[in-house]
Amino acid sequence: MTSHVLILGAAGRIGQVLALAFANSGWEVRAQARKPLPAALVSHPKVRPVRCDASGAAADLATLGAAAQGCTAIVNALNSPYTEWERLALPLADAALAAARASGALLMLPGNVYNFGRELPALLTPQTPERADSSKARIRIELEARLRAAAAEGTSHPVDSVVIRAGDFFGGPGTGTWLDMALASKLDRGRVVYPGNPDLAHAWAYLPDLAQVFVRVAELRARQPASMRGHQRLHFAGHTLTGNAFMAGLETVLGRPLRMANLPWGLIRLASPVVPMWRELLTMRYLWERPHALDDAALRARIGAVPQTPLPQALRAALAAAANIAA
């Protein structure tokens, strides 16, 4: 029997990769977006568009709720602009939660490391204490707290949910990752623009690998008895790399030596009062000043071997996608 999944935010970078991963695995995909879907999704026989705004009028939310009916899983890949988190992040999350509550579907959320605050430890497990010491940490903590609360509701239909946490994304369509905004932005001049100390470890997630994890978790969760469901947090380790190791990977792909250059944080700080995006990036600089990696033991216990594309292959594909966008 074919399973159905509703991807919220299917026109975004991670939404597109997730929609294709589920569709290519045989799922019937309902792809929600405010704008027209990209050609790769429109042409796929397993993808059906759902045109509505998840943060909009009641009519849109009704459309969203109807699309969720009969779904085994809902993936909340909705991503408000980085400068609009205070206004949009929680309402978007509430719309996804309402759709899951009404349909009984598993609600899946791509998580990040913001929850652990500015002093995050070097190894992050699902049990690592959270610290709401920044605006974005507070929002992510509250968002996940609402999922836990919904799983514990004293009703006959608590919401089944899972957060799959990962590091910084790279790969997939579109722009807006640290790879294309910084590290690879000066490769034509032989430089890697690195935002932090190149000797410190940093967690990265190659999106096609992460998307396969979502598919496998959804498939396994659907076979579990209701008594084993609830709220769960899993960590995707991805690639943990120092800046030097990342540059070495790029050198392997390009076949030539590169030089390390620093991101101009001083200029970003000076311009931050008048450039909202730079102001938001500045508040997250700490992630480049603290070594961190994600412990995926719980994920491996759940699904077995975790997909991991070799770094040169992943970087080659990511750079090719970025070049197509630039062209």
Let me know the average pLDDT. Answer: 93
CATH topology of the domain at 4-169 and 206-238 and 291-308: Rossmann fold
Q: Tell me the CATH architecture of the domain at 4-169 and 206-238 and 291-308.
A: 3-Layer(aba) Sandwich
Radius of gyration: 19 Å
Shape category: globular
The low-pLDDT segments are none
What composes the largest sheet? 7 strands, parallel
End-to-end span in angstroms? Answer: 42 Å
SS elements, strand count = 14
The CATH homologous superfamily of the domain at 4-169 and 206-238 and 291-308 is termed NAD(P)-binding Rossmann-like Domain
Helix residue percentage: 40-55%
Count of helical regions: 12
Spatial order of the strands forming the largest sheet? 3-2-1-4-5-7-11
Query: Briefly, what CATH class of the domain at 4-169 and 206-238 and 291-308?
Result: Alpha Beta
Task: Tell me the strand percentage band.
Answer: 15-25%
Report on this model:
It is a single chain. The protein has 327 residues and is an alpha/beta fold. The protein contains twelve helices and 14 strands. It has a domain at 4-169 and 206-238 and 291-308: NAD(P)-binding Rossmann-like Domain (Rossmann fold, 3-Layer(aba) Sandwich), CATH 3.40.50. 41% of the residues lie in helices and 19% in strands. It is globular and about 55 Å long.
